[in-house]
Design goal:
The protein folds into two domains: 143 residues, START domain (Alpha-D-Glucose-1,6-Bisphosphate, Chain A, domain 4), CATH 3.30.530; 138 residues, Alpha-D-Glucose-1,6-Bisphosphate, Chain A, domain 4, CATH 3.30.530.20. The chain contains seven helices and 14 strands. The strands form two sheets. It has a seven-stranded antiparallel sheet with strand order 1-7-6-5-4-3-2, covered by helices on one side. Strands 8-14-13-12-11-10-9 form a seven-stranded antiparallel sheet. A hairpin with a 5-residue loop joins strand 12 and strand 13.
Length: 308
Amino acid sequence: MPRTIELVTITPVPQENLFDLSLDIDAHLASMAGTGERAIGGVATGRIGLGETVTWRARHFGVWFTMTVRITALDRPRRFVDEQVRGPFRLFRHEHRFDVVDGQTRMTDIITVASPVFGRLAERVVLVPYLRRLISARNRHLVAAAGAEPSTSPASEEWEPGDVTPYRAAQSTTAVGTGEDVWQRASADVLRWAVKTRSGFTVPGDGEVLSGEQKVITAGWGSVRVTEPVEVVEVVRTPDRVAFSYRTLPGHPVSGEEAFIVHRDGDRVLLTLRSLTAPGDRWGWRVVHPLLRVAQRVARRRYRRALR
């Protein structure tokens, strides 16, 4: 028997903007970077419309799946429905509703799904919890892409994140050195991911950071390797401030944003670190989140020494 789950997201993003973003193939792919999802058929880029199909290929539970869905109902900006026409489920229907409540947009996802094997047991124990996490992470990404998520604001001298539940906000500033030579070196290094690479992380490529680019960073402790998919949000270049921030993508051990900021105070060169951190989208990472917070503190100590 199919099971139905419902998720509600409240956001200040305007109703029309969030509706259109939810139909955008490219925005969806960016939100699912952790699964390696690709559009391999039908509408493969831009906004999908009524009656149109898209074929997705993605890796879930370590297995590659292919699913074709069709937009079977569309009433902009209030509602649309996508349904599986070919794929791994006995039934898959996703209804998206968008309402304005007290000046905010309430996005409601109603998903009806039937597992191809083991019926109710697989749905209750595996499929429904997994879909809840996956869609919740997708929605956080869409809201962030619309500019409504809390930000580390690397261009701002003052940062007052306020109440950013469920995120934990952190900021620290350390001295790098003094003088023009130190400034030139540190401001160039920070844009080449040196804070990460000199702290034990592997970042693919060797060029300067670019706004909008996505990378999969690798962290290692002994024989353990952890991948961290991220997307660069903002790059800052001014005479006295050079910085960038990136947000995590689905599949990252944590959810949030991090910024590395090199700036000047007179002759002094400083490095400011800012972060917003919440548990990741996957159940396994949520279980070990307390340990990840310890690992983050160790990483931040390394960050503070990276540009000296």
